[in-house]
Amino acid sequence: MSTYQIAALGRGSTRLGRLRGLIRGRCVLIVAGSVVAVTVLTAVFAPLIAPYDPNAVDPTAVYQPSSSAHWLGTDDAGRDILSRLLYGARSSLLAPALVTLTAGLVGTALAVSAAWLGGWYDRLVSALLDIVFGFPGLILAVVVAAMFGAGLTVAVVTLSVAYLPFIGRVVRSAALRERQLPYVSALRMLGVSGRRICLRHLTPNLLPLVLVQIATSYGYALLDVAAFSFIGLGVQPPTAEWGLMVANGSTGILAGRPEQSLYAGVVIVVFVIACNLLGGSLSQRLLGDNR
């Protein structure tokens, strides 16, 4: 075989590998995006889909197995598990969305302003982000809950603060690199104000990175919100929420009825995995991450 044929064969295998990677990445994006989209639609249309009132207690139907009347069975209060899962998607998805959006907006504003202004302000913002990054969010939630009481608002506010470094630190590093690009120097030479450069040029160019960070952080935020509800600091009974359902079903596990905790836990795990895969696929497509 000639050198030319060997080189051509190598190029062909490289192209085939790239094609397989592209197809695989697209399939992951489609599957993960479909899981997220279906879950969101389920939460939106829960009142139309759920067969029962999620809080309707039926003492005569306690721990009923799966049947045509109750597809996933009932819990220790005779409530339909499927209905509670569908309604629970609302608070389970809304709280992480508020957390990641708040952390994304505030973190991006702090990061861009710190990278642009520099000096003592940059050092102050970096120090604050490092302090928050090293402080466990769960401990912060316990302190805040002790001061203001438990509830969904406490969980959202606490986690929004805890997630600031996850977005702010990454965006700040990217903003520092972006500030050194020639187009920024050209805009400054033309007399464009720093505020306009940051709002009209710097921040939009960083938007793909921010979106990837939000998508990646969303799954972890959902886990944290579920953990808050599990230990009693988040959503309070009888509201349907996935983390709270896992906690409420723990007594049923000892009685040989793990359905409530099992189904809620499976839903959480599947959705978090889908969010992580979606974030990875968006990273490859928006940021050109070919690792």
UniProtKB/TrEMBL annotation:
Q: Which UniProt keywords apply?
A: Cell membrane, Membrane, Transmembrane, Transmembrane helix, Transport
This protein's membrane topology, according to the annotation, is: Multi-pass membrane protein
Q: Which GO terms describe its biological process?
A: transmembrane transport
A single GO CC term, please? plasma membrane
Which CDD domains did the record assign?
TM_PBP2
What SUPFAM superfamilies does the database record attribute to this sequence?
MetI-like
List, for all copies, the residue spans of the domain called ABC transmembrane type-1: 89-279
Where does this protein have coiled-coil stretches?
A: none
Give the subcellular location.
Answer: Cell membrane
Q: Which PANTHER family match?
A: OLIGOPEPTIDE TRANSPORT SYSTEM PERMEASE PROTEIN APPC, PEPTIDE ABC TRANSPORTER PERMEASE PROTEIN
Q: What is this protein called?
A: ABC transporter permease
The record lists the organism as Streptomyces spongiae
Taxonomic lineage of the native organism: Bacteria, Bacillati, Actinomycetota, Actinomycetes, Kitasatosporales
